[in-house]
Write a structure and sequence with these properties.
Elements: H1 3-27, E1 35-36, E2 43-44, H2 46-62, E3 67-70, E4 84-92, H3 94-99, E5 105-112, E6 115-123, E7 128-133, E8 138-140, E9 143-144, E10 158-161, H4 174-183, E11 186-188, H5 193-202, E12 207-213, H6 215-228, E13 231-233, E14 246-251, H7 253-266
Parallel strand pairs: 3-4, 10-11, 10-12
Antiparallel strand pairs: 1-2, 4-5, 5-6, 6-7, 7-8, 8-9, 12-14, 13-14
Bound molecules: adenosine-2'-monophosphate (2AM) and calcium ion (3 copies).
Length: 268
C-alpha cells in the first residue's frame, strides 16, 4: 500500500466512522434489543450489529478485494493476513454503551500483508477521533500525539486493567498481580479496551493489560500506539497476532519489559 492509497482509504474510513457514530447517537435511546452471547454479561445490541453491517456493506461496495474481520459476524473467516484486512469492532464497550451511555468506541485497524497501516478509535459520545497512519504519527482530533515518555517508571505508572486480574484467573497467579497493583501508582478500569489503548497512545495512561482480547478489540489501538512508541503483545512478550484471541499487554516502552517480567513471575 503506497502513501496515496493509504490516504484515500484513511479518508474514506474516517467519513464512514463519523457517519456510523452519528447513527449510534441518533438511535441509542430507542429500544436496543439487548442479547447475551457467551455469558449473561457478554452483551450485544442491534446497534452493534447495524453498525458493523453499515461498515461492512460500504467496504464491500468500495473495496471488493479487501478482507474484513469483525466481532458481530458480518466479516470473513481468515486463515492468513495476506492482502488488505479491515479489523472492526463496531461498538467497543457494549456494557458501557448499554448501562452508561458513554465511554464506548468504534475501533478499526487496517492492515496490509500483516502490517498495520491505518488505525482509528472513535470515542462516540465525546466526539474524539484518535487516528494514525503508518509513519505519519498518531492524532487526537487535530492534535498530534507526542512520543511516549522514555523515562517513565513502573512506580509512576497508571495502568488500565480490570478486576479479574486480582481474582483467580487462567493467565497469572493473582497474588503476583496484587503485588503489581501495589507497585504501580494507580490502576484504572474504563471498560473499553479500544479507548484504554487510545489513552496509552495519548500518554494519559501508561499501560493496559487484558486477560483475553480479540483482534477487533485492539487492532485500531495498537496501530495508534506504534506511531508513538507504545509496545503491544501478549502476556509473554510475544508480538500481537491479528488472527488470534489472547491476553494483551500494551505499554509505554519504558515499562513494557518490567510488566512482562512481573507476569512471568506468576504466569500459569
Ligand atoms: P466489547 O464491549 O466489544 O465486547 C470490557 O472489559 C472490554 O473487554 C471491552 O473492550 C470488551 O469489548 C472486551 N471484551 C473482550 N472479550 C469480551 C467478552 N468475552 N465479554 C465481554 N467483554 C469482552
Ligand atoms: Ca462484545
Ligand atoms: Ca471489543
Ligand atoms: Ca464490540
Amino acid at each position: 500500500m503506497n502513501q496515496e492509497q493509504r490516504q484515500e482509504i484513511y479518508e474514506t474510513a474516517r467519513n464512514w466512522i463519523y457517519e456510523a457514530g452519528a447513527q449510534i447517537r441518533e438511535h441509542m435511546n430507542e429500544p436496543l434489543g439487548i442479547e447475551a452471547k457467551s455469558n449473561p454479561n457478554d452483551l450485544v445490541t442491534i446497534l452493534d450489529k447495524q453498525t458493523e453491517k453499515f461498515l461492512v456493506d460500504r467496504i464491500h461496495q468500495t473495496y471488493p478485494e479487501h478482507h474484513i474481520i469483525g466481532e458481530e459476524g458480518f466479516g470473513d473467516t481468515l486463515s492468513n493476513v495476506d492482502g488488505t484486512i479491515w479489523i472492526i469492532d463496531p461498538i467497543d464497550g457494549t456494557m458501557n454503551f448499554i448501562h452508561q451511555k458513554r465511554t464506548f468506541a468504534i475501533s478499526i485497524g487496517i492492515l496490509h500483508n500483516g502490517v498495520g497501516e491505518i488505525g482509528f478509535v472513535y470515542d462516540v459520545m465525546d466526539d474524539i477521533l484518535y487516528h494514525a497512519k503508518r509513519g505519519e504519527g498518531a492524532f487526537k482530533n487535530d492534535i498530534k500525539l507526542a512520543s511516549l515518555d522514555k523515562e517513565k517508571k513502573l512506580e509512576e505508572a497508571i495502568v488500565g486493567m480490570n478486576h479479574f486480574w486480582l481474582c483467580n484467573n487462567k493467565v497469572v497467579d493473582y497474588t503476583v498481580m496484587q503485588k503489581f497493583v501495589r507497585t504501580i501508582r494507580g490502576a484504572r478500569t474504563i471498560g473499553s479496551a479500544a479507548l484504554e489503548l487510545a489513552h496509552v497512545a495519548e500518554g494519559i495512561q501508561d499501560a493496559y493489560l487484558a486477560l483475553s482480547l480479540a483482534p477487533w478489540d485492539v487492532a485500531g489501538g495498537i496501530i495508534l500506539n506504534k506511531e508513538v512508541g507504545g509496545i503491544a503483545g501478549d502476556a509473554d512478550g510475544n508480538p500481537w497476532n491479528p488472527l488470534e484471541r489472547s491476553p494483551a499487554v500494551v505499554a509505554n516502552p519504558a515499562i513494557y519489559r518490567s510488566i512482562i517480567e512481573f507476569l512471568k513471575e506468576g504466569r500459569k
